[in-house]
Amino acid sequence: MKQVVVLLPMKGHSERVPNKNMKDFNGLPLYHTILKTLQQSLRIKKIIINTDSEIIADDATSHFEKVYINPRPDMLCGDFVPMNDIIAYDLSTHVDDDHFLQTHSTNPLLSVKTIDKSIELYFDALDKGYDSVYSVTKFQSRFYWENGKAINHNPAELIRTQDLSPIYEENSNFYIFSRNSFNNANKKRIGLKPLMCEVNKKEAIDIDDLDDFIIAEAMAKIINNLII
Questions:
Q1: Which member of 114, 163, 184, 187 has the greatest number of CB atoms within 10 A?
Q2: How many other CB atoms are there within 10 angstroms of residue 200's CB atom?
Q3: How far apart are CA 158 and CA 149, in angstroms?
Q4: Residue 121 and residue 215: Cα distance in Å, rounded?
Q5: Per-residue pLDDT tens digits for 176-191
């Protein structure tokens, strides 16, 4: 079975939700949820956590297997460091691995079924000439530019939203790529010939602010039958 290495970057500091990665999420630190899911997948060889936090590093290695800590150097610390720079650093320090899946602790509703499906899609896509896979969310609604101009519809023709051409949002749930595709794309996680992988809106929730956190936590309780 072909496997990938997971890249799971986590900062100790967060602006909109303080201490987000370690914040209590249904009784456990938020990042535990995605790590538990990742560890269920047989297609994942190991999980590399790039972090500037000794608290996260100690907690992760004491609770999870297949986890390797990659201490983040000072030059990559801060709120404005591009994710591709962090990925490049991880690849430079794990030179024996070729295929990677980068995800976030802020995607707690991703299922192992979706993760396995995306990895399988990636390896099938390589045989068809694609070089990477990234997750998207499908929208069929009426969108407008800031100036009020319609993006994907004609306001004079109010056709049903389900008949509109869909628009896909890059949702940052996951990116799957190879070392070669990353380098060929000038060190970018989306390659030169990528394939989109649609994720349903429930699983695609990404925690950016406190409202997202509250919604995701409530949905997780419902999914896990913690509340009726």
A1: 114
A2: 11
A3: 15
A4: 29
A5: 999 999 999 999 999 9
Q: What is the CATH number of domain 4-136+168-223?
A: 3.90.550.10
Reported as a single tens digit per residue, the pLDDT across 71-112 is 999 888 887 889 999 999 999 998 789 999 999 999 999 999
d(CA 195, CA 198): 10
- Sort 12 into a burial class: Cβ within 10 Å, 0-12 / 13-18 / 19+: middle
Closest CA to 45 of 113, 100, 127: 100
Question: Looking up tokens 């100036």, which residue turns up?
Answer: 147
Q: CB 133: neighbour CB atoms within 10 A?
A: 24
Asked if residue 227 has pLDDT above 80, the reply is no
pTM across the whole model:
0.92
- φ/ψ of residue 6, rounded to 5: -90, 135
Q: How far apart are CA 226 and CA 208, in angstroms?
A: 24
DSSP letter assigned to residue 222: H
